[in-house]
Design brief:
The complex is a heterodimer of chains A (279) and B (293). By secondary structure, chain A is an all-alpha fold. Chain A contains 14 helices and no strands. The relative contact order of chain A is 0.14. The chains are: A mainly alpha (279), B mainly alpha (293).
Chain lengths: 279, 293
């Protein structure tokens, strides 16, 4: 703080508290709605304070199959997809960045630009042809189909390249003199030195993977392969009747809990990774 | 670009880049080529025969008032989302930069929307503004506003903008806070000693110094609004009422998967790819000319 202005500080806090409350308001209403029964959620005005049906609703949600796929299955699918996407992206990016930085080989720049191109082709703009490729490979309704087409990552490759360039050359020379093979150097020096970046990237990519929507929507037709994020939409559309809001909001809670927990508990590393890597 | 010293093994680097390159070829380059190729084809309704029609699909899009209005709508939507979320985030960041106590707590709560999937964000806002049940609809009714985004197209647009901007505030906030942190304290102190108050300092020192970040965020936000808001629109309005919230990405999906107009959808994909390429080039040009202070 530059100068002491108690009044300005007080106003800053007040405005921040109101602002944060407004930002969190939709999430609060979700929590409130998931703790009331179906009847209460048809009466206007809707409650602003939590009810006592939370555990009842959880029991109902986990025991019933009337909302498409059983929720524990779709949570598991989401977890599998998010883990495969995030770990897959990290693994293939870290080795390709290692090759591009530490090796001299033909077509190095060509490969580099080819990876760069993927940055320009978000899945939304090439959905139809990508869908056809995945269908012809027989990867519909499978974990591989859910994750592999989203695994190539220019951003992660660039970030690792940036990190590797800051590792001092002497380390590599020293390890070479000591007779370590390139892969030995990779596992014993490069990976440990990029631990923070890997962790930060994991947070970003886990959220990216978990929150995928359009892609799973297209390639899964078997309810047992649905992810929890896309099952929300199914519940919103269920039939002619008014949607079951207490169940929808409870499912929404479970669908956002894992990424929110990851981002909140790994906050420090995430913020550092985000603002360092994308700038 | 590369290390001064490097390994000279023959096959290892190819093995290392192989997974990335194979996935890129199979799932990125090949489909993109397909989209490009299909955009020159006219297929009959059953997909039995197709004809090479050069730029007809593009000409058709250009002549189609629906597509042009979707274009304008997307531009409006993107700038509204970027403006709203950046404005709010900048405001919060400026306040958070001032306070010492509790800053961590505010940040923790403010980053939550970042982790919420677009379709979930859409669902939450849909619930708040549900025409019959929504709590916000109830409040709006008390002050005499009749809310029904299922009928009123400008209300529908307002709602998707609100939901999309809400999700992006966290990201913008983190970048603005980081940018403000990197401004040397001595500059601010010098201005304070010269008698400049917080608002004056913000306008004449902080805001100009964070302008590179602001520009970077503008590009990122526009890319976000163009491509990552599909889930929000799908959940909240599904492009309606009429076509009033059908942005370009949604139209590609709608025409391709629902309308089965493969050539037209592919031509739209190609146009979108060019937009991404243009935005990415702008973004990278900016990174190269990063302002130092």
């Amino acid at each position: 703080m530059v100068e002491n202005r108690p009044m300005t500080t007080f106003i800053s806090h007040s405005v921040l508290i109101i602002g944060v409350a407004l930002i969190v308001f939709p999430i609060w209403i979700m929590l409130v709605a998931s703790s009331h029964d179906a009847l209460r959620l048809t009466q206007v005005p809707l409650p602003l304070l939590p009810g006592d049906q939370f555990w009842e609703n959880i029991k109902l949600l986990f025991s019933s199959k009337t909302f498409g796929a059983p929720i524990h299955l779709s949570l598991l699918n989401s977890l599998a997809m998010a883990m495969m996407i995030s770990l897959g992206k990290i693994s293939i990016s870290v080795i390709s960045a290692f090759a591009i930085v530490y090796f001299k080989f033909r077509f190095r720049m060509f490969f580099f630009w080819m990876i760069f191109v993927t940055l320009m082709l978000p899945v939304e703009v090439r959905i139809l042809p990508t869908y056809e490729v995945v269908a012809s490979l027989g990867m519909l309704d499978s974990y591989l189909g859910l994750s592999v087409p989203l695994i190539a990552s220019a951003t992660a490759t660039f970030m690792f390249r940036q990190t590797f360039l800051t590792i001092s050359d002497e380390l590599m020379e020293a390890s070479r003199i000591d007779g370590a093979s390139p892969m030995r150097f990779f596992f014993d020096v490069v990976i440990p030195m990029s631990r923070t970046n890997i962790a930060a990237l994991f947070v970003i990519l886990f959220i990216y993977g978990w929150n995928q929507y359009l892609w799973p929507l297209l390639i899964t037709t078997d309810p047992d392969m649905y992810t929890v994020v896309m099952s929300i939409k199914q519940m919103l559309e269920s039939g002619e009747s008014e949607p079951m809001w207490h169940m929808i909001m409870l499912t929404a809670l479970f669908a956002m809990l894992p990424p929110v927990l990851v981002v909140v508990f790994m906050q420090k590393i995430f913020v550092k990774g985000l603002t360092d890597s994308e700038k | 670009m590369q290390k001064r010293v490097h390994y000279n093994t023959s096959y290892l680097p190819y093995l290392l880049v192989a997974p990335q390159i194979i996935i890129t070829l199979v799932f990125f380059i090949w489909p993109a080529m397909q989209a490009l190729y299909q955009s020159f084809l006219l297929e009959d309704a059953f997909g039995l025969s197709s004809e090479f029609v050069w730029f007809d699909n593009f000409v058709e899009l250009y002549d189609n008032p629906n597509y042009l209005s979707s274009f304008i709508r997307t531009a409006f939507f993107s700038f509204a989302v970027a403006g709203l979320s950046m404005g709010v985030a900048l405001f919060f960041a400026a306040l958070a930069d001032r306070v010492v106590k509790g800053a961590q707590g505010y940040r923790t709560l403010l980053i939550i929307p970042y982790a919420v999937a677009p379709v979930l964000a859409g669902t939450l806002w849909l619930f708040l503004f549900n025409p019959t049940l929504g709590i916000m609809t109830y409040f709006l009714d008390m002050i005499g506003i009749n809310w029904n985004h299922k009928l009123d197209s400008s209300q529908a647009m307002g709602l998707v903008i609100l939901a999309a901007a809400w999700k992006q505030i966290s990201y913008n906030f983190l970048f603005f806070v980081a940018a403000m942190h990197s401004i040397p304290k001595s500059l601010i102190e010098a201005a304070a000693i010269d008698g400049a108050g917080p608002a004056h300092r913000f306008r004449t020192i902080i805001f100009p110094l964070i302008s590179p970040t602001t520009f970077f965020l503008l590009v990122v936000n526009i890319i976000y609004a163009f491509f990552d808001t599909f889930g929000i629109i799908h959940a909240v309005t599904a492009g309606g009422p009429g076509n009033s919230t059908e942005i370009l990405v949604y139209k590609v999906f709608n025409d391709g998967f629902v309308g089965l107009d493969l050539g037209g959808s592919a031509a739209q994909s190609v146009i979108l790819m060019f937009i991404v390429i243009a935005l990415t080039v702008i973004q990278f040009k900016y990174i190269e000319r990063k302002v130092e202070y």
